[in-house]
Automatic annotation (TrEMBL):
Descriptive protein name: Cathepsin propeptide inhibitor domain-containing protein
InterPro entries the UniProt entry points to: Papain-like_cys_pep_sf, Prot_inhib_I29
Source superkingdom: Eukaryota
Organism: Nasonia vitripennis
Region: Disordered, residue numbers: 89-111
Length: 111
């Protein structure tokens, strides 16, 4: 029983070390720098959540349940709200009907 507990704890440590190494590689690859350790920890948690979602989606892709795969990119440390504000649909301001009036021109049919 003790062996099983020790083996399980070692597996958890190995997984954490791998996740930390991937995080360091992510920061290097995308030149990520954070204002302070608290901000980095917050971004790390977001990154881990994103990574989990990507992995879950790619299992579905491998099972033929979805038609595309996902990967980690430079936005993996951003929240959905941040992404929406950065890339959301931005419609031009609505103009009043009076601003849309155009001078009518005669249509001349070509010969």
């Amino acid at each position: 029983m003790k062996f099983l507990i020790v083996a399980l704890l070692m597996a958890v440590v190995v997984v954490q070390v791998l996740a930390d190494d991937e995080w360091e590689q992510y920061k290097i690859k995308f030149n990520k720098k954070y204002a302070n350790p608290e901000e980095e920890q917050r971004r790390y948690k977001i990154y881990l959540d994103t990574k989990k979602k990507v992995e879950e989606h790619n299992v579905k892709y491998n099972n033929g349940e979805v038609s595309f795969s996902l990967g980690i990119n430079h936005f993996a440390d951003r929240t959905p709200e941040e992404l929406k504000s950065m890339h959301g649909l931005r419609l031009p301001e609505q103009k009043s009907k009076s601003e849309h009036k155009q001078k009518a021109e005669a249509f001349i049919r070509p010969d």
